[in-house]
Amino acid sequence: MARKKINSTPQLSNIQLSLDRFDGNPILKPDPKHPWETKAVFNPAAIYEGGKVHILYRAIGETDVSVLGYASSSDGLHIEERLDKQVYIPREPFEGVTMSQPCVSQTPGIYVSGGGGMGGCEDPRLTRIDDRVYITYVAYDGHSPPRVALSSINIDDFLNKKWNWKKPVLISPPYKVDKNACILPEKINGKYVIFHRIFPNILIDFVDNLEFDGKTRWLEGQYKIPIRALGSDWDSLKVGCGPPPIKTRDGWLLIYQAVCRRDESRYKMGAMLLDLKDPTRVLARSRNPILEPIAAYENEGWKAGVVYPCGAVVINDRLFVYYGGADTVVCVASAKLNNFLEQLSTNHKETKPESIPVQPPTDKKIVEPVQGYCLRCKQMQPIRNPRHVMLKNLRHAIQGACFWCGAKISRLVKSKPNLDDE
Fold first, then answer.
1. DSSP alpha helices (H): ranges in 92-194?
2. Which residue among 347, 382, 407 closes a domain?
3. For 93, which DSSP code?
4. What tens digit of pLDDT does each residue of 43-99 get?
5. What is the Cα–Cα distance from 178 to 198, expressed in whole angstroms?
6. Residue 184 maps to which CATH number?
7. Is the distance from CB of 350 to CB of 282 less than 8 angstroms?
8. Over 7-29, what HEC string results?
């Protein structure tokens, strides 16, 4: 009888879809020698150019203003260069105070994230398209709802560290908290593709050009990648893009961050595959996190329980994902790209990879800040994206989501309030 050959290769179903932390994490820590980055360095953007990983990271120092610093690595793991001066600072009113202003007299606003109560430039993402490097980031003035800002720089200036950034402009609409924006590195059907996040979903826009004027043209949120429906799912409360999607043979690889309804204080990391010709279609999506905040440096800092990806590169068939740990340090985790893609596309397929258009709202938005009583938080909370509605009993109300926990809030009002005409 012929002996049956034993296959020693492990089955894909037995391999966990995950990233491996670098043993040398964190790769960047706050630096007491530089006043602009003494408190926190985190949420790093990254691109691979000229044989190096170029990292732009969010930094907070003595003024509590968020600025961006620079570091680089040849192997993706060990930092070989770190500049002693910030490379991107607030320049516009929508980015808050200047670097010279003190922070002791200002009370942090309700939108503060990761410290930095004086506003600034937060959580960057980098995308190279042709001869320019585009940067998207959260612009926060210290009190208004944070919005998405856009700037760019010539690739030669970037590589030569000549920080001649183009004047930044806001690209997301006013009165809405919009974050987690990144740009696809190539056009789809002649249009640029921009991902962003208005709670709780990832939104996608197709635009003819990137020449926003900051006054009349905004992101609309044409399509969405929603949270998962079940409260038990790990990404059921809110989802947001991490790094700009990476083009692979199986689709656009999107690393994303998410929060679960059952575990609202912990940010975890997942992965999706988007259709190469239509990135609004999700072909595969990790059923479990690919990285959870369990290391000490992901739990000891400004915010415990956070792994927050903003950058990713591929070097010699290895995926490197750069993330902020506990809103305090910069870390990296990696995986062999081919194995990662095979596992994701085989065992995490979406049953219905369909585009989901966002329907235009039928009611008017409220432009003034408003609060309501949150049953989950058991106290008055700011209402995120408040809108006027008419209830079934014909009573007027303002509805939205609790800023802190995302629960639905309805606040009765005596009559229809004054509404914006937009």
1. 155-159
2. 347
3. G
4. 999 999 999 999 999 999 999 999 999 999 999 999 999 999 999 999 999 998 654
5. 5
6. 2.115.10.20
7. yes
8. CCCCCHHHCCCCCEECCCCCCEC
